[in-house]
Amino acid sequence: MTNTSKPLLLSGNQAVARGAYESGVRVATGYPGTPATEIVESAALYDSMQATWSVNEKVALETALGAAFAGVRSMVSMKHVGLNVAADPLFSSSYTGINAGMVVVVGDDPSAHSSQNEQDSRHFARAAKLPMLEPADSQQAKDFVGIALEMSERFDVPVMLRLTTRVCHAQSRVILGSPDASRNGATGFRPDFDKYVLLPRQAVERHAVIEDRLLELAEAAESIEINHAEYRDTQIGIVTSGICYSYVREVFPEASVLRLGMTYPLPEKQIRQFAEKVDRLVVIEELDSFLEDQIRGMGLEAEGKNWVPRVGELTPERLLASYDAGTPQPLEIGNPEIPGRAPRICPGCQYLGIYSVIAKLDVTVAGDIGCYTLGSLAPWHGIDTVVCMGASISTALGMEKALKNKAQGRILAVIGDGTLLHSGIPALMDMVYNRGHATVLILDNATTAMTGLQGHPGNGVGLQGRSSPGIDFEKLCEAVGIDWVEVVNPYDLEETEETLRSALDYAGPSVVISRAPCLLIERKPPIQQAFVAAEECTGCGDCLAVGCMAVEKQIVEDEWVARINEDLCVGCTLCVQSCPEGAITPRSLVETPDLIELQPS
Fold first, then answer.
1. Whole-structure pTM value
2. Which residue from 291, 313, 288, 261 is spatially nearest to 143, judged by alpha carbons?
3. How far is CA 454 from the centre of its chain?
4. Whether 482 contacts 424, CB under 8 Å
5. Would residue 89 count as lying in a domain?
6. Which residues contact 34 (CB under 8 A, 6 or more apart)?
7. What is the Cα–Cα distance from 186 to 158, expressed in whole angstroms?
8. 3-class SS shares of the chain: helix, strand, coil, % to 5
9. Domain count, the chain
10. What CATH number is attached to the domain comprising 545?
């Protein structure tokens, strides 16, 4: 591809989308999840691509695979835990192969910055017997998309592209190229029963194809340009990949380095040649000993995880400290001179009212993945378990089955609207099917808030201006067999508490839908704000139990009383309802030509 402009600063995510555009990708699918969310969002900026959010990662991968079957290049992206959801079609896609090229982009999250676990997705490539590429910077992130698609078509296989949080979010120079004008439309689906229909006989025959293909891929890995050796001082030779290459060059500038852009299958001959030319072979990689174990399996003596940390992100400082100490050094989180601050729920969010009520109920709460997961923190401590997307309902059912009669009215599952659609509906049906009687609280804020206000089938908001009718959650619950369904206004604490208690008392599965749009969807100036009469405040702290950041403490005559931060208050009145003394009252904001004044309502 020819260069078309001066270099730009792009994040790894933006660069992947650009690479897809230049390489003629026509369908880009995914499910939002940090650190990979912006890949599909950036792809949506290119008119030549149909970019869509899918209801979950499994559906996203299957959609991209269908597009590849039909003869257009496709891309699917997700975060590492999303790859678990997509594992079923991922493994089968290795058997079916493709028609046009397909790349599977996964964003791993070492140190679990925004995830429920640290997972090394390289193991999926080995288990599914799919090739995997790992870019080290934004330029490679763009270029490797094209390399992956060419490899995909050459070997009739989806190709995995693994990024980590630093590569996804860090910006670096990218030289742009021209889009591939030769790929304007689908070549069409070519029926092939033995290839695309995975009945048992076909599966066994296709497995043999996979094994032969893996040998061919390993041979290709020996000559692919993205695997190359850099010889300097040969006393130490370091094998590395991805972002770790940047760390290695900073910490060990004089060392010889074998830089692997393709990390499965490995170029065994090239690794052996490199090992023969260095005195000490070291493998530096984040998380698991994926490369090291395979290199040791070749019969080579290599060191690495005896001093390279297995837990958390590597940094140049941590890598050097571990090398000097000869043992893995802990990850320093934050700056010790700066006080830490826990994540907080936004001022005025519906979750504040919900968790204020939940804190009053004597229930065990199975939680899920979303902004509402923060309800597990102070002051509410309103969530007792968090496992993965969609697990709250299933976990609640399991608790109920274990506790039997002791569980009646004591088990609550909390799940968001997007998460319910992602993977909660089967669990909801299972609760009905297995005669459960727990209560499910659906927090409907009309968006996928935690990852950046993406659309989902519930609100019908799609990418690139496309939209569809939203889902009626009440009808959905009734359709799967829930007889007890109520909708509450989460800003009415009394109504919410009464409804939840009634749902918990119901002798059968019940659903409460808390409905209020995320305040970030369409941020408007407040029409009222709370006001504290300091002389009437007793300092009981009930308003602080709401957990709103707009409610603060101030000292008046050596006693603390509540105050409202007017820069944060959105006028939700939750603190007003929580005050037993009536010391907090709402006041309307009246606009005048010159200023906004506080007036009694």
1. 0.92
2. 261
3. 12
4. no
5. yes
6. 79, 107, 109, 113, 114, 115, 165, 451
7. 17
8. 35, 20, 40
9. 4
10. 3.30.70.20
Residue type at position 315: T
pLDDT at 599: 42
pLDDT for 468 beyond 80: yes
With vertex at residue 415, the alpha carbon angle to CA 521 and CA 446, rounded to the nearest 5 degrees, is: 20
Question: Which residue segment(s) compose the domain that 462 sits in?
Answer: 350-515
Whether residue 595 has pLDDT greater than 80: no
In a domain, residue 345? The reply is no
DSSP string, 377-388: STTT----B--S
Q: What is the pLDDT of residues 110-155, one digit of tens each?
A: 998 989 999 999 999 999 999 999 999 999 999 999 999 999 999 9
Task: Write out the H or E segment, with its range, that includes residue 552.
Answer: strand 551-556
Q: Which tokens go with 421?
A: 């659609």
The H-or-E segment that residue 174 falls in is strand 171-174
Residue given tokens 């340009």 in the structure block: 225
Q: What is the average pLDDT value for the chain, to the nearest integer?
A: 93
For residues 366 and 467, membership in a common domain is answered with yes
59 and 78 Cβ atoms separated by less than 8 Å: no
Tell me the residue type at 239.
V
| Assigned token pair, 591 | 């606009």
For residue 16, give the nearest of 151, 125, 214, 162 by alpha carbon. Answer: 162
Residue 378 maps to a domain: yes
Integer angstrom CA distances of residue 160 from 37, 64, 75, 101: 17, 13, 10, 11
- Angle (CA) 231-121-299 rounded to 5° is 50
Give the bridge partners for 586, in sequence order. Answer: 530
- For residues 413 and 548, state if they share a domain: no
**Is 479 part of a structural domain of the chain?**
yes
Residue 340: is its pLDDT beyond 80?
no
Peptide bond into 336 cis (omega under 30): no
Higher-scoring residue by pLDDT: 455, 248: 248
Higher pLDDT, 204 or 592: 204
- For residue 307, give the CATH number of its domain: 3.40.50.920
CA distances from 116 to 333, 345, 488 (A): 17, 18, 30
